[in-house]
Amino acid sequence: MKHTPPSISVMFPFLNDWGTVGSLVALAIETVKKYTDDWEVVIVNDGSLMSNREALEMIVKLLNENGRRIKIVTHEINRGYGGALRSGFAKATKDLVFYTDCDAQYDPRELSLLLKKMTPQTGLVNGFKIKRNDPPHRVIAGRLYHYLVKAVFGLPVRDTDCDFRLIRRSVFKKVALYENTGTICVELVDKINRFGYKISEVPVHHFWRTSGKSQFFNFRRLSATADNLFRLWWKLRVKKDYLH
């Protein structure tokens, strides 16, 4: 029997990343075409400036095939990183959903590494950074966050904040997401694990940011992030509320 390759949705949350989005989408398309003819790209514009929104629309128009393959989901008001991911997951229609950020800190061509680890039993293939290429203050903040998450949630992955993931879309029949901030990554991994799906990991390269600005890993936001994590812990560990 001939093997039918899985269809793939590529999803990018977009916030004023007009300088890098075009090359990232082109590389992602080049990569998925090697594995399937059934693919789509979903870009979630999460309240970007009008100039960036117009630039995104122009880039997508140039890249689109027959006006159907690449679609933009627009939030008029910023909903946060979690809100952007939730919209992207809801709009994805293919068997597998790959997502990464638009700031070019990851190479979409390394999606190939994730696909090699995706089996019928796997719900999530999670990337982990070989080496973090960020300014020292972000490296320190990232490590503090990592140790906090590891201690509180005990997740079965070594790099929860590596936003380079391949997810089997069918997991969302059970896994409902509600976080609007970057803590959605903890919610996502924790729920996929709690529902018994297999999780695999793959080392990926991490590059210096060429555009945009991190909204998550900075010292001013650490207290707010800790508060969000506590609320999520209470919901998942104390109330044991995995669906609502």
From TrEMBL:
Q: Which GO terms describe its cellular component?
A: plasma membrane
- UniProt entry tagged with the keyword Transmembrane helix: yes
Question: Species lineage, top-down?
Answer: Bacteria, Candidatus Gottesmaniibacteriota
What SUPFAM superfamilies does the record point to? Nucleotide-diphospho-sugar transferases (SSF53448)
Q: What is this protein called?
A: Glycosyl transferase family 2 protein
Q: Report if keyword GTP-binding is assigned.
A: no
The UniProt entry, under InterPro entries, shows: Glyco_trans_2-like (IPR001173), Glycosyltransferase_2 (IPR050256), Nucleotide-diphossugar_trans (IPR029044)
Organism domain of life: Bacteria
Its keywords, alphabetically, are: Cell membrane, Glycosyltransferase, Lipopolysaccharide biosynthesis, Membrane, Transferase, Transmembrane, Transmembrane helix
A single Gene Ontology molecular function, please? Answer: undecaprenyl-phosphate 4-deoxy-4-formamido-L-arabinose transferase activity
GO BP term, example: lipopolysaccharide biosynthetic process
Domain Glycosyltransferase 2-like intervals: 9-175
